[in-house]
């Protein structure tokens, strides 16, 4: 079964649009690789966490920032389809 990406965000902080933007980017990039993206309003203030099938891949509080779109796509790709080429969003070798 294809993985589900979960984006838990703080609605009180106004981060729903950011979460929705990331969801759109994920679904566009990983159309064939994911079952779906779930947006989950958090009950914890300031939370913005991205998980794949329950496994955390990014936490805003731990990193002290939001992920860049390119970075988030790379983190997801590395878990769900390491061979996938992300084109211009991919890491530069060397």
From TrEMBL:
Any coiled-coil regions, as ranges: none
Keyword Transmembrane: no
Taxonomy, superkingdom: Bacteria
Keyword Manganese in record: no
UniProt keyword terms in alphabetical order: Redox-active center
InterPro entries tied to this protein: Selenoprotein_Rdx-typ, Thioredoxin-like_sf
Entry-linked NCBIfam families: CXXU_selWTH (TIGR02174)
Protein name, UniProt field: SelT/SelW/SelH family protein
């Amino acid at each position: 079964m294809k993985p589900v990406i979960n984006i838990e965000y703080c609605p009180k902080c106004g981060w729903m649009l950011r979460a929705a933007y990331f969801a759109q980017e994920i679904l566009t990039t990983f159309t064939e690789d994911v079952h779906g993206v779930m947006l989950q309003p958090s009950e914890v203030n300031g939370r913005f966490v991205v998980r794949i099938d329950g496994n955390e891949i990014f936490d805003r509080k731990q990193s002290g920032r939001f992920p860049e779109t390119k970075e988030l796509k790379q983190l997801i790709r590395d878990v769900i389809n390491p061979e996938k080429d992300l084109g211009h969003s991919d890491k530069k070798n060397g």
